[in-house]
Backbone:
C-alpha cells in the first residue's frame, strides 16, 4: 500500500528506528512513546486492522506476539511486566491503519487503560 506509513517503513522508504527485522515482521521504536519502552511490531503483510485478518494469517499473528515477547525480554521488561496492545478502529485509538502490536513497559500501568 503506497500511502500506508507502516508499509513505507517496512519497505525502508520512510525513516524509523528499527529494532527487529525478520521475514514476517519489523519492529520499530514509537515516535510518540507512551512509556519508557514503546515499540511497535508490524507485519510485513499489510492488514488494515485485526478485523481484516483471515484464518491464513493465524501463524503471522502468533509470530507478532512472539516477537513482542522477545523484545520485551531483551529490554528487561519481564520482571515487572509489560503491556501488549492492538488498537482496532478510531474509537480504540488506531491512527495508522496497518495492524501493529504495541509493546509498552518501564512504568506501572493502570486498569482500565482508557
Residues:
Amino acid at each position: 500500500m503506497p500511502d500506508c506509513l507502516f508499509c513505507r517503513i517496512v519497505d525502508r522508504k520512510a525513516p524509523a528506528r528499527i529494532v527487529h527485522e525478520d521475514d514476517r515482521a519489523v519492529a520499530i521504536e514509537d515516535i510518540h512513546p507512551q512509556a519508557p519502552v514503546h515499540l511497535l511490531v508490524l507485519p510485513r503483510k499489510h492488514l488494515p486492522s485485526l478485523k481484516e485478518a483471515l484464518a491464513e494469517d493465524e501463524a503471522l499473528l502468533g509470530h507478532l506476539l512472539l516477537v513482542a515477547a522477545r523484545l520485551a525480554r531483551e529490554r528487561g521488561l519481564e520482571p515487572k511486566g509489560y503491556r501488549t496492545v492492538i488498537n482496532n478502529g478510531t474509537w480504540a485509538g488506531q491512527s495508522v491503519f496497518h495492524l501493529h502490536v504495541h509493546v509498552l513497559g518501564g512504568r506501572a500501568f493502570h486498569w482500565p487503560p482508557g
Summary: The helical segments are 5-10, 58-74. The longest helix spans residues 58-74. The chain has a mean pLDDT of 96.
